[in-house]
Amino acid sequence: MEKHILSKSTYIKGEQCLKQLYLTKNKPKLRDRMPAERIAIFSRGTNVGIYAQDLFHGGIDAGPKHYSQYRKAIELTAQLMTDGQKVIYEAAFQAHKTLILLDVLVKNGDAWDAYEVKSSKSLSETYYKDAALQYHVLVESGVNIRSFSLIHINADYIREDEIDINKLFIIKDVTDEVKNRAQTVSLKIEEEIASINSPEEPDIEIGPHCYAPYDCDFIGYCWKSVKRPSIFNIPSLSKEEQFNIYAKHKSLVESLEYADLSEINRMQIQAQLNKKAYLNQEAVRNFIPDFTEAYILKLLHFTPALPRYSGSMPYEAIPFGFALQKIKTDGSKGDIIRFMANGKTHPKELVYSKLKEYLSDDIPIFIYANTEAKIKGIDVIDLSQLLKKGYYYRSKITKDYTTKSLALAMGIQTPFKAIEMDIVAAQFYNDILDGHKDSMDRAIKIKDYLDRELRIISGFVFGL
Ligand code: SF4
Q: Fewest Cβ atoms closer than 10 Å to its Cβ: which of 74, 104, 121, 184?
């Protein structure tokens, strides 16, 4: 059997941008290092597919144990089908120089029903594209397909005692949609293969496609020509707005001519051009109450794809731990109080009640970029609003107002820690609950992260 050229993931890369596909296949060393937060996002839904297999009992897994064993997987799938196996998980097929692994294949009379599982709460255009590719390869492989369905998570599902798998998942028959796309898929495969084999890299400009549907792996390589600072360094503009402006004005100075800029956009562009900080003292004074002492709070949430506790929903943000520290206007700091729930039962009430044990009503509580500005009966002051409302800005704050860029901008020393974003801390916590072999180490890293965040928040308060 000839080795495949495309797989589902490389096909989708080519759908996004032919240059990305070309580089993936021909110059993989140019790929950006994958940030930990992106890995954490990917791994959030990894067990959903395995879990959904229980919708179809008695299957045999034909998937390759290692990517290089795809041939064995194709042969095993064919053998299982011949032997009369009714349900096959990770069924492997190759046709039109393309390899696919289908989540579940179910025998239905003398035909087959195909199912692909998505760990999201809704179906996007990309999922239809990848379903159409799978359908095409199945049909080209000679499989008599009766129906093709996408399975995704029911956003409204609330877990009772145990997860009811039939209510947790929604099965959507997309047979008509994938059949209608058959011709397009065939042409697209030809185009992608021609592009891979071309002697020249495709001449494709940067654009919104660099971030949609996924962040491209080659942004570092392709974006070298964008002179910094650029309109893409202005955090108050959405990606779409940034590209609209960039299409008309390549330099940041010229972008000031763009008519639809808000006051905050203009202030941030000026700050970038002049390399100066901006502070609206009056607005900051009104935002932050007078205090002699205050609490600095960092609260962590995790968002498991599968509802972990009775009463919880898929992807619900569940608080699991915090760190709290008292600061005084003379610059002194109290001891850090840390708490992390063991997660055996729903941590939310425990986290809030623990937190309330340490707080007193007349002392303000500062947080930074917390998703819940009012935490169940506790009034907090979200300092990230100072940046989002345009009261404060520094030119080094270039990316979505993260604490990482805030620390950099304010010169707050935070030696590199394994965790630099909430989403990675959430993934580590999830790992601990799943009994990861490095749980102790992960817990220490979460503690380090909490300390780091407190340091940044207090540094911000003292630096204002
Ligand atoms: S960075 Fe943009 S232009 Fe470059 S390969 Fe990726 S998607 Fe294509």
A: 184
- The answer to whether 295 and 317 are in contact (CB under 8 A) is no
Q: Give, using CA atoms, the residue closest to atom 5 of ligand 1.
A: 20
| Cβ–ligand 1 contact at 13 (below 6 Å) | no
SS3 content of the chain, % helix, strand, coil (to 5): 45, 20, 40
Confidence (pLDDT) at 398 = 79
Q: What confidence tens digit (pLDDT) does each residue in 447-456 have?
A: 999 999 999 9
Residue 273 Cβ < 6 Å to ligand 1: no
143: which residues sit within 8 A by CB, 6+ positions away?
Answer: 81, 93, 105, 112
CA 141 / ligand 1 centre spacing (Å): 32
What is the structure's pLDDT at 362?
Answer: 86
Domain boundaries, the chain: 6-196, 226-276, 282-463
Spans in the chain with pLDDT lower than 50: 373
Q: Which CATH architecture has domain 6-196?
A: Alpha-Beta Complex (3.90)
Return the CATH fold of 282-463: Nucleotidyltransferase; domain 5 (3.30.420)
Ligand 1 neighbour 17 (Cβ under 6 A): yes
Asked whether 31 lines ligand 1 (CB < 6 A), one says no
What are 259's two structure tokens? 């008519």
pLDDT digits (tens, 9 = 90+) for 39-70: 877 777 778 999 999 999 999 999 998 878 89
Cα separation, 234 vs 236, whole angstroms: 6
Ligand 1 pocket check for 18: Cβ under 6 Å: no
pLDDT at 306: 94
